[in-house]
């Protein structure tokens, strides 16, 4: 049983948003059949909660249709159950499932903001398309203004989302994520011969990427598409650069996967990419595509990376250290928010993997400062006990 002890400290500006009753069961809602970054986070949360002794379940929606756990997520401990609309239930939905909370009559609701832009259907490709998507979501009842959401608990995966809510006077609690085992291993020292190759995701920022490809015929660009997870890993382990000029609606996974594979990362400055808390790379690798001289700056940066790759790759060590710490950070955040129902809480390991050549703090030392700078609540004060 979890009792809320921290309602006022974590409510919205108007005092709303706190849990007011004990919680016995937690239901995390996930779109059925989806195999992308967001749904994996939802499975990770259920897995973490169950490891802490909670009665937590994954609930696939639409609720009126049968669904099975995707094969890619079956290694997580995610028992499946339909949502129970009871006073002792907590129902957590991703931001795209906010409309599901309106159906609740007794259960308490929480929103986990895995993205910001996706909530309004914004892609950044064109204002007209974004406006059309927002209008369609509003007409279908799947979008509400932030002011209408103050009565719920809010978790955020990114600093970008925390600021988005703060602008509307809504307090939030950080609940991040982590890369799967296949990508968390540092491959920056892999023995494979790297090539002067620029990898990119064709679903992210293609208007900018297309212009860069056209303006730089001397460089080889490789789209990441129609590939298995193993093929993606193999590509990133041989490329020198990964670029992403998309809208970065949340703390995206692909830049982190590319960094762990040993690539140098070049991004734009939109969305979460603006913030060091979300993409912890030097500002010189974040290029504003709207600035004068953007294309020439990109060409010069790529050329310098290709000519002195080892020096540039070393500048991403801190980012890789941060990514390696994410599984432990997620455990700490989940434990701090929901509490540990097990008699003997698991201790943090003393030997988290670390790049011994890195000048950044060791992961264990860095864990002491895991609560983000923008969230000054006591890290060990549980919201729900």
What's the short version?
The chain is an alpha/beta fold and 385 residues long.
Describe the structure.
- β5, α3 and β6 (173-174) form a beta-alpha-beta unit.
- The strands form 2 sheets. The protein has a 6-stranded parallel beta sheet with strand order 2-1-3-4-5-6.
- Helices cover 29% and strands 14% of the residues.
- It folds into 2 domains: 1-181 and 326-385, Rossmann fold, CATH 3.40.50; 189-315, Rossmann fold (3-Layer(aba) Sandwich).
- The protein has helices at 37-51, 127-139, 159-166, 181-184, 206-215, 229-236, 254-260, 294-307, 309-314, 317-338, 363-366; strands spanning 25-31, 55-61, 89-94, 108-113, 153-156, 173-174, 195-200, 220-223, 239-244, 264-267.
- With 385 residues, the chain is α/β, with parallel strands linked by helices.
Straight-line distance between termini: 7 Å
Derived structural class: alpha/beta
Percentage of β-strand residues:
5-15%
Reported by name, the CATH topology of the largest domain is: Rossmann fold
Read across the widest sheet, the strand sequence of neighbours is: 2-1-3-4-5-6
Query: Could you tell me the mean pLDDT?
Result: 81
Describe the largest sheet: 6 strands, parallel
User: Tally of extended strands?
Assistant: 10
- Per CATH, the class of the largest domain reads Alpha Beta
CATH architecture name of the largest domain: 3-Layer(aba) Sandwich
